[in-house]
Known about the structure:
Growth Hormone, Chain: A
Amino acid sequence: MNQPDKPSLVQRVAREMQQTFRSLNNRDFRVYSWGQVISLSGTWMQSVALSWLVYKLTGSAAALGMVTFAGSLPLLLLTYPGGIIADRFDRKKVLVISQVLAMIEATALTVLTYTGLINVTWLVILAIIRGSITAIELPARQSFVPDMVEKGELTNAIGINSAIWNTSRTIGPALAGLFIGIFGETVCFALNALSYVAALISLGMITVKPREHNAKTDEQDSTGAGNRSVWSILMDPKVRTVLFLSAATSLFGFQYGVLLPVVVDQVLGGTASTLGFISAAAGIGALVGSLALANRGNSRVLRPGIGIACLSLSVAIALIAFSKLLIISVVAVALAGASVSVQLSGGNSLVQSSVSERYRGRVMGLYSTFMLGFAPLAAMLAGWLAEYMGVSYTLYLSSFCVFVAASLYLFFSRKLKEKDDGTK
């Protein structure tokens, strides 16, 4: 009896690629993705150039923390209102308006830098404006993905969406390091302003129909019934543990990113090009993590997997604190990027899978608050501690806090699984 031929290596790779990128078969999601790659690459260019500009103007880790705090504070205060907007209005229109406002902000930053009028005060003001736009746009963007794809493809689409973010996180910083060294920061800000044109074109090509709203249920939501329903979702222990892990990552896991310019300058003795290179390494690591999630995100290991990813993040942060060699720092930053990508995108998928369409925007607004909203406090704390303890000791402390949070998450997740198994 003849044995069936085993698939060749090329066939296996092709099958895995189809599995990983299957949600891109959806035309609207594919068009949206291309626009996002271009627009987000510009956003990352501006982010790296802005960090370098702040540090160049002030030479202060505390100033870096202050500007990051100003840009992140709206994420703590406005993401839930942004979620309400995403539930009550056409999400596509919300995204279009957000992109236009972000283009105006980037243009203002370009003009102020080009004319030499830029200073820390203007940077703080523009950071607050930029953060406010992001806080309104983020829940709409996250809840817009399920509007384009079928429910069975949601985890894959979230993984691909994260891969898009991280592809741009690789391209943007690398280009920023190159352009800052040749032309200066102003070019990066101008290119970011232009990149929003791609996002607007792609949104204009999408054919997703606006969701129908029921006047009676909208009135009930406005009286507080919707908020109570959202609260009941958040009180589910499986959702609550994910939110706890996201908050811990927001508070302590992102500090290494805030302090990267200081690490590059004081520890590695690098330049703006070094910062762009090492930031791109974080993007490559995050891209690998998000593609792994897209390929295997429906497996049973997703819930414990985000806890293990957080443990690996603590190891990566400790390596960044310890390393004096660029190659080790690059590997550590790449590992940190992969860990954050798996943890946050996996958490996004777990939360979205437990949410009804009616409350998706609000729940994702709250998830965004836990995921990013505590970053302003972390930025100020990181800058202050780096000034008084040194950057390495600050990162060691961050690593320890992330390790404790991951261990607690894994412990309680295991208890929940044992409880579920016992009730079957």
